[in-house]
Specification:
The structure is a single chain. With about 200 residues, this protein is of the alpha+beta class. It contains six helices and four strands. The strands form two sheets. Strands 1-2 form a two-stranded antiparallel sheet. The chain has a two-stranded antiparallel sheet with strand order 3-4. The longest helix is centred in the middle third of the chain and has 55 residues. It is rod-shaped. The two termini are about 85 Å apart.
Length: about 200
């Protein structure tokens, strides 16, 4: 549904006035102009879709003008100007435009979600590559130095365990009393955890 208002500047052909009054009567303007306008508008507007009516408004107006001038000559009228002054669409068209905008925004949001997922995937790949490179560096260092890195880590773990046991109240230390008598190198000392 489209509503169009036209501005029409017209006049009767002066040399055809007697014929005009004889054929159409004195109220010719009220009978002829609305019928010509409706007929021409329907035939011209039907050739365009809603988008073209908006984007090609000047072209549509020019076609309406030329068609109305042709039709008016048969009724002994001259049109000086014909122009579209008002063009609106029905509620269905406005709803369709709104739905199209909403769909467009949703499509843009989906593209953003896809880009974000792609960036997250690239971050995971980069992190995994870094971890693989770190593992490779540790492996090469172990090949060069032997088990020294493992021994350092064992010592660090032993220090951590010793610190935890030293602060615990349920630990008993039993020194080794058998052996050479001076207590050095005679045997292994025993540390017991008495947790329930």
């Amino acid at each position: 549904m489209v509503n169009i208002k036209l501005r029409v500047l017209w006049r009767p052909m002066i040399d055809e006035l007697p014929k005009l009054y004889r054929e159409l009567g004195t109220d010719f303007d009220e009978r002829v102009l609305p019928s010509i306008g409706n007929e021409v508008l329907k035939s011209v507007v039907a050739q365009y879709n809603a988008e073209e009516l908006l984007s090609k408004r000047a072209e549509v107006s020019a076609r309406i003008k030329s068609e109305m001038i042709k039709r008016a000559k048969t009724f002994h009228l001259e049109f000086d100007d014909v122009a579209i002054t008002h063009l609106t669409f029905g509620r269905e068209f406005m709803n369709a435009i709104e739905a199209k905008q909403v769909a467009s925004q949703e499509a843009e949001r989906q593209q953003w979600v896809v880009k974000r997922a792609e960036q997250e995937r690239m971050a995971v790949v980069t992190r995994a590559e870094g971890e693989a490179e770190a593992a490779s560096i540790i492996t090469k260092a172990m090949e060069k130095t032997g088990n020294a890195i493992v021994e350092v880590r064992r010592i660090d773990a032993a220090k951590e365990i010793t610190g935890k046991l030293a602060n615990s109240r349920n630990v008993v230390y039993l020194p080794n009393t058998s052996g050479s008598g001076n207590g050095i190198g005679g045997g292994a000392n025993l540390l017991l955890g008495l947790d329930k």
